[in-house]
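Appendix C: a fully annotated inverse folding record. The material below is reproduced so that readers can follow the format used throughout the book. The structure is listed first as C-alpha cells, followed by the designed sequence.
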C-alpha cells in the first residue's frame, strides 16, 4: 500500500490514491509506522501540496509523528553543533554523516527525516583526540570497541529522553577486509562546511555512495533506506553520475553491493528511470521481496533468503565474503542492538551475543516449522 503512495508522491503522472478509500490509508499508515517513515512521508506530502488529498485521520497521525521527530531532531542538532564547535576548537577534522545535516540539505527540513544518533567521520590518527572531545561533552558511556569494526560509540543520558543519545566516531565507511575502498578519497573530495575550517561535508558523489552502502548494510530492510536513495536521485538528477559510481565501485570491490541495491530500488520504483536512467541490465533473481521485510517479525522463509543473500552473495571477492560472514557471526554491539530491536547499552558484549544467537536460532527453527506445516 505505502509503496503505491510513495510512488505517487514522487511521480505526478501516477494516479493518486482515492482519499475516500479508508482501508488503503489505514494499511498505508500501518506500513508507515512499521518502517518509521512518518516524518518523511508527512514532509514530502506537505512540500508537494498533497497532504490535503489524504483523509484527516491520516494527516493527523503523520503530523503527530512529524512533531515528535522535529523536537528530537532539534535536540540532536543542538548536540551536533556543540560537537562541531568542540572539534573545530580542538583542530580535529570531522565530517557529519547522515543525521540532521543530511535531512536539512537533501530533504529541506530538519524534521523531514528521523534521526536517533550522531554519526561523525574522523581520521583514524585523530581518534584519541576525538574521544576526549566527545567525553568532554558528557558522552562518557563507552561501548567495547571491536578492532575489525570501523566505529566507536559513546553515549549519554538526555533529560526527558527514555534512551541515551549515542555518538558514533567512524574512521571508515566499510568494515575492514570487506572491500578495497580507500577513505582518503572521501577526505580529498570533501569541502569545508559553512564557516568552519576543520568541519567538512561529504561531496555529493560520496553522499550518494554512502547512502547506497548504508541501505545495503541494513539489507534494505526498511522503506526509509529506499526513500533516502530516491530523494537523492530526485535532488541530484544528472549529478548522480552512475558511470563514475559503478566504475569506482568496481575498483573498490563494492560493485555487487552498489549494483544490486540500485537494481532493487529501481525495480520497486521504476519511475526513477525518467529521472536518471540506470545503466544496468534488469535481473529477476534479486532475492528481495517487500512482503518479506514487511512481515519480518513472522520470520518467513523469504525474509531469511533475503537476509542471507546480503551476507553471502554481495561481495566481489571470496575473501571479502568470508569477512562479511565473520561480521554476521560477531557483529558490533550497535548492530546487535539493532537486530534485537532494543536500545539499552548496559549489557556485556558476551550477554548480547548469547541473546542474539538465541533469537536467531529460535526464529529460524520457527520458520522451518511454519514452512513445513501443510
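Designed amino acids, in order:
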Amino acid at each position: 500500500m505505502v509503496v503505491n503512495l510513495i510512488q505517487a508522491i514522487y511521480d505526478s503522472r501516477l494516479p493518486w490514491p482515492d482519499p475516500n478509500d479508508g482501508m488503503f490509508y489505514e494499511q498505508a499508515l500501518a506500513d508507515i509506522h512499521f518502517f518509521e517513515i512518518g516524518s518523511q512521508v508527512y514532509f514530502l506530502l506537505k512540500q508537494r501540496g498533497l497532504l490535503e488529498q489524504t483523509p484527516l485521520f491520516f494527516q493527523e497521525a503523520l503530523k503527530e509523528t512529524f512533531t515528535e521527530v522535529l523536537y528530537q531532531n532539534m535536540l540532536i542538532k543542538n548536540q551536533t553543533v556543540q560537537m562541531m564547535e568542540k572539534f573545530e576548537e580542538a583542530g580535529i577534522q570531522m565530517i557529519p554523516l547522515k543525521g540532521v545535516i543530511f535531512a536539512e540539505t537533501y530533504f529541506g527540513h530538519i524534521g523531514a527525516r528521523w534521526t536517533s544518533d550522531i554519526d561523525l567521520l574522523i581520521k583514524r590518527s585523530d581518534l584519541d583526540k576525538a574521544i576526549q572531545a566527545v567525553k568532554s561533552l558528557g558522552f562518557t558511556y563507552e561501548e567495547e570497541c571491536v578492532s575489525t569494526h570501523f566505529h566507536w560509540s559513546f553515549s549519554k543520558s538526555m533529560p526527558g529522553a527514555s534512551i541515551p543519545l549515542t555518538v558514533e566516531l567512524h574512521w571508515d565507511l566499510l568494515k575492514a577486509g570487506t572491500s578495497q575502498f580507500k577513505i582518503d578519497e572521501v577526505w580529498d573530495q570533501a569541502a569545508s562546511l559553512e564557516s568552519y575550517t576543520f568541519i567538512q561535508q561529504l561531496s555529493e558523489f560520496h553522499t550518494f555512495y554512502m547512502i547506497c552502502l548504508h541501505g545495503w548494510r541494513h539489507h534494505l530492510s526498511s522503506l526509509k533506506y529506499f526513500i533516502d536513495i530516491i530523494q537523492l536521485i530526485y535532488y541530484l538528477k544528472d549529478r548522480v553520475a552512475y558511470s563514475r559510481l559503478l566504475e569506482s565501485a568496481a575498483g573498490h570491490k563494492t560493485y555487487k553491493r552498489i549494483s544490486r541495491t540500485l537494481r532493487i530500488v529501481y525495480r520497486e520504483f521504476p519511475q526513477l528511470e525518467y529521472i536518471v536512467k540506470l545503466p544496468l541490465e534488469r535481473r529477476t533473481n534479486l532475492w528481495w521481496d517487500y512482503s518479506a521485510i514487511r512481515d519480518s517479525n513472522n520470520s518467513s522463509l523469504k525474509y531469511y533468503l533475503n537476509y542471507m543473500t546480503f551476507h553471502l552473495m554481495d561481495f566481489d571477492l571470496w575473501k571479502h565474503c568470508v569477512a562479511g560472514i565473520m561480521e554476521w557471526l560477531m557483529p558490533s554491539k550497535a548492530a546487535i542492538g539493532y537486530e534485537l530491536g532494543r536500545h539499552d547499552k548496559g549489557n556485556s558484549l558476551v550477554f548480547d551475543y548469547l541473546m542474539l544467537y538465541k533469537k536467531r536460532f529460535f526464529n529460524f527453527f520457527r520458520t522451518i516449522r511454519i514452512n513445513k506445516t501443510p
